[in-house]
Amino acid sequence: MDSGNTAWLLASSALVCLMIPGIAFFYGGMVGSRRILNMMMMCFGGASLVAVLWVLYGYSAAFGNSLGGVGLLGNPLEFFGLSELLTEDPAASIPLALFAAFQLMFACVTTALVAGSAAGRMKFGAWMVFAGLWASLVYFPVAHWVFAFDNADGTVTGGWIANQLGAIDFAGGTAVHLNAGVAALALALVLGRSKGWPHSHGQPHSRPLILLGASLLWIGWYGFNAGSALSAGHSAAVVFLNTAVAAAAGLLGWALMERMRLGRSSSLGAASGLIAALVAITPACGAVSPLGAVAIGAIAGLVCSLAIELKFRLGFDDSLDVVGVHAVGGLLGTLLIGLFATDAAPNGVSGLFYGGGFSLLGIQALACLAVLVYSFAVTWLIAKVLQLTIGLRIPEESELKGIDLIAHSESAYRNDEEPVELGAPARS
To answer: Residues 360, 367: contact at Cβ < 8 Å?
Structure first.
């Protein structure tokens, strides 16, 4: 065991775990004051359920030997209960139990992201059932496709995107962000619009909470990306640097777009630009130079600031812009590898702008298309079945009264007794 690598991955796992309350605060600040507790409970509840499923069969489905060697799903019973990870592997540079814990945090974060499209109108019990089914049928298989690599000695076979296709996704642009964003779209379409959408519950109730959540996410993202190097070395250092400069460029890009379109730059926009850029650099952080990272971050900030308007134009109630930020940002970051990748970076491949031709761009596009189609189709089926059986929506009068009181018999703020106000959409 390498003590330095182990220490770094322990720290990275804790940083990724920090992203769960980061999402909860970020999302919680964006909703109305009568929906914050439910929003945060969806994040914590979904993540907690996924953690238990990870021990039972999730880790096996994601990182077990591929069933039939075709790269679609790991053997879900191979590491049932994870008791096999208690024995130290003398050939490993980090404990396998630590790797399982690190990847567990990815599964928890991804599930929490999806909750943003259902804010304020989904039964908490239905959400918990949905979260368990979604992690089992969507996240675990896609994680196997993208993150499970074949062993050099051939004793373990992994996912088809990582091995047969050879797409580059350093830390989860497809498996995490595109996956969660597309799932959010499918769930939003099945759920339908909130009562009075887009005018009711439109304004975020606490912008300081939004900035707090974004700050926690920014810090946690260094563990998310640089921790995916699985070692405390040169690759982790390059990834750390690329993550930092991309995030800054994204904040500036979104702020600039708001300034040009609306005549002002908002705190919500700054936080959103930061997150959009972090999403986009996630798959590319090991493949590009710092200058390429700045370009990807800036492009994500500019494009995602426009993409969030699609929900108003197309009429789907993606409450907290999971589609515009995570689906679009994840898609952008994964595709831009085909343009900005340089063989001087840790991944060692070149994109179009560095003499690599169009082949890498095509590979990246195929990986995106596969995750997009699979995630949308299976998520839509899960949500539709639950809608027809246990039901997904709370009653309309409960939406107006506030889901916190209905679902949890609690109120976030003691003096929160004013009637629900109808105002302009949050992003108007």
So the answer is: no
Q: How many Å apart are CA 206 and CA 221, to the nearest integer?
A: 23
Report how far apart, in Å, the C-alpha atoms of 64 and of each of 72, 136, 143, 155 are.
11, 14, 11, 11
Sign for the CA dihedral angle at 268, 269, 271, 272 comes to positive
How many other CB atoms are there within 10 angstroms of residue 400's CB atom?
16
Residue 177 contacts residue 111 (beta carbons within 8 Å): no
Residue for token pair 């299976």: 378
Q: Count other C-beta atoms under 10 Å from residue 407's C-beta.
A: 20
Using alpha carbons only, what angle is made at residue 225 by residues 301 and 178, rounded to the nearest 5 degrees?
55
For helices 234-262 and 290-307, give the axis angle rounded to 10 degrees: 40
Read off the pLDDT of residues 213-265 as tens digits, 9 standing for 90 and up.
Answer: 999 999 999 999 999 999 999 999 999 999 999 999 999 999 999 999 999 99
Q: Are 80 and 60 in contact, with CB atoms under 8 Å apart?
A: yes
71: left (phi over 0), alpha (psi -120 to 50) or beta: left
Burial of 90 (0-12, 13-18, 19+ CB in 10 A): exposed
pLDDT band at 90 (very low <50, low <70, confident <90, very high): confident
Q: How far apart are CA 80 and CA 59, in angstroms?
A: 8
- Residue 60 identity (one-letter amino acid): S
